[in-house]
Specification:
67 residues; mainly alpha; 52% helix; globular
Length: 67
Amino acid sequence: MNRQDKKQIPLRLPDSLCRDLSAWAQEDFRSINGQIEYLLSECVRKRKKARYTSSDTDPGTHGDPKN
C-alpha cells in the first residue's frame, strides 16, 4: 500500500494505553502506528470472518438469529 493510499486521522489515547501499545509494538518490531494499523486490520478481518461464517444466522439479520 502506497503512503498516498492511506488516510491520516487524529487519534487521542490515554498515556497508559499508549505506553502499552508502544511496548507491544517494540516486541513485534513495529512502529506504534504500524501496530495500531495491524491490530485494527486483524479486528476487521475477524469481524468479517465471524459475520460470514455463522451458519445459524440469516445474512440479512446482521448476526441476530432472532430476526
